[in-house]
């Protein structure tokens, strides 16, 4: 706690209320259980140790503004370069990366690289010691557990390096789009199935629109009550089929979004560690579904027309183009709405809880 508070004061002088609010935001639900006076007690101890100094008082009487002393800045610089594996707590490392990012003290990716090099060295030592042990030895079992723990930590750090620091835009792309593309690259088959499902829905809707703009065929009597019963029955059947396909597509979108969120919770936690906001995570999960939805909806229009072409004749009437594109746009907007809720729920998962679960 002391090192994190010092790192945030390295950015600018601040008071305990602001520091406590930042910690709660970074830690998520775990931060809500933090003692309200813990930050103030920490500041008092740091002041007695000569690491911070009280500059002034602003606002309410208890909002005392603190700033770093030269000794405090040296303590922050030492803390940022410390590598405490294998005793490193992932929640603590998460706070270190978040503080370094927020206060612009260091490049979080470079910090991750330092920890990764240290872990690789320790893993090689553990593996050599394990090979030297006879089969079935108690020490060998312990060394195997150490190696497995180090490998799990390395996978997390490798993901941190690959993800990179999420600024407002990365390589010209917004963070949600970048995260969505990353999720699609991990499961391209799922994205293809999503596009096919939306395309099938738009094909059905296009065919439905084409059928409903045709002139109704009656029995030759000018009465709306004596229309062709077979034609009316066919129209009703197509409406039922279209409704069933839309329902299946909606359920598939909800299920796919939730499954993607569960599988990507580790990647999303890494993104949060490097500075991404819950809103960007939510938009990234939605983008993973919307990006394949757009081409699927656009392809569904000509495929729907082609599907109806063998049954058409010289007198076939086609709906206006804006009707067809409006149907495709409605499918895209419906997908955005359906993905928002499960994506939002998944984005609110505690980062520290997720990272701790990955190594237990």
Short description:
It is built from 15 helices and four strands.
Tell me about this structure:
The structure is a single chain. The protein has 15 helices and 4 strands. The chain is mainly alpha-helical and 360 residues long. It folds into 3 domains: 2-82, Orthogonal Bundle (Arc Repressor Mutant, subunit A), CATH 1.10.10; 86-165; 175-358, no CATH class. The strands form 2 sheets. It has a two-stranded antiparallel sheet with strand order 1-2. Helix 10 runs antiparallel to helix 14. The longest helix is centred in the C-terminal third of the chain and has 35 residues, at 229-263. 33% of the residues are buried. The model is unreliable at 165-171 and 223-227 (pLDDT under 50). This is PadR family transcriptional regulator. It comes from Streptomyces scopuliridis.
What's the topology here?
Elements: H1 2-11, H2 16-27, H3 29-32, H4 38-48, E1 52-57, E2 64-68, H5 70-81, H6 90-102, H7 108-132, H8 138-163, E3 169-170, E4 173-174, H9 175-186, H10 188-212, H11 229-263, H12 265-273, H13 278-308, H14 321-347, H15 351-358
Antiparallel strand pairs: 1-2, 3-4
Protein name: PadR family transcriptional regulator
Organism: Streptomyces scopuliridis
Considering the chains and any ligands shown, give keywords for the structure.
360 residues, mainly alpha, Arc Repressor Mutant, subunit A, PadR family transcriptional regulator
SS summary, helix count:
15
As residue ranges, the low-confidence spans are 165-171, 223-227
Q: Compute the number of strand runs.
A: 4
As for the number of domains, it is 3
SS-derived structural category: mainly alpha
Mean pLDDT over the full residue set:
76
The general outline is elongated
Describe the largest sheet. Answer: 2 strands, antiparallel
Oligomer: single chain
Terminus-to-terminus distance: 23 Å
List the helices and strands in order.
HHHHEEHHHHEEHHHHHHH
Query: What fraction, in percent, of the residue positions are helical?
Result: over 70%
Q: Enumerate the strands of the largest sheet in spatial order, edge to edge or round the barrel.
A: 1-2
């Amino acid at each position: 706690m002391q090192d994190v508070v010092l790192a945030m004061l390295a950015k600018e002088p601040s008071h305990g209320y602001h520091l406590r609010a930042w910690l709660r935001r970074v830690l998520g639900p775990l931060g809500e259980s933090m003692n309200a006076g813990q930050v103030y007690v920490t500041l008092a101890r740091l002041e007695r140790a000569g690491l911070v100094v009280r500059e002034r008082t602003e606002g309410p009487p208890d909002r005392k503004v603190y700033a770093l002393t030269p000794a405090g800045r040296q303590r922050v610089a030492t803390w940022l370069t410390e590598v405490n594996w294998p005793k490193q707590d992932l929640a603590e490392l998460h706070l270190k990366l978040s503080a370094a990012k927020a206060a612009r003290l260091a490049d979080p990716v470079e910090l991750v690289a330092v920890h990764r090099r240290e872990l690789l060295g320790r893993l090689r030592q553990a593996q050599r010691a394990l090979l030297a042990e006879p089969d079935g030895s108690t020490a060998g079992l312990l060394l195997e557990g150490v190696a497995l723990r180090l490998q799990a930590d390395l996978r997390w750090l490798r993901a941190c390096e690959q993800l990179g620091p999420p600024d407002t835009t990365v390589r010209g792309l917004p963070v949600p789009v970048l995260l969505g593309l990353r999720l699609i690259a991990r499961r391209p088959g799922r994205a293809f199935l999503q596009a096919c499902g939306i395309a099938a829905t738009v094909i059905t809707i296009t065919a439905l629109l084409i059928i409903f703009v045709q002139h109704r065929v009656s029995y030759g009597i000018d009465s709306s009550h004596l229309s062709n019963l077979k034609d009316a029955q066919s129209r009703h059947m197509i409406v039922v089929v279209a409704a069933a396909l839309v329902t299946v597509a909606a359920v598939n979108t909800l299920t796919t979004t939730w499954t993607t969120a569960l599988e990507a919770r580790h990647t999303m936690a890494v993104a949060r560690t490097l500075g991404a906001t819950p809103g960007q995570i939510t938009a990234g999960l939605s983008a993973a579904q919307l990006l394949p939805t757009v081409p699927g909806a656009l392809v569904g229009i000509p495929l729907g027309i082609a599907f109806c072409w063998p049954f058409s004749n010289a007198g076939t009437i086609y709906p206006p183009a804006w009707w067809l594109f409006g149907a495709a746009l409605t499918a895209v907007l419906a997908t955005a709405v359906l993905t928002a809720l499960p994506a939002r729920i998944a984005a609110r998962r505690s980062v520290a809880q997720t990272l701790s679960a990955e190594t237990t």
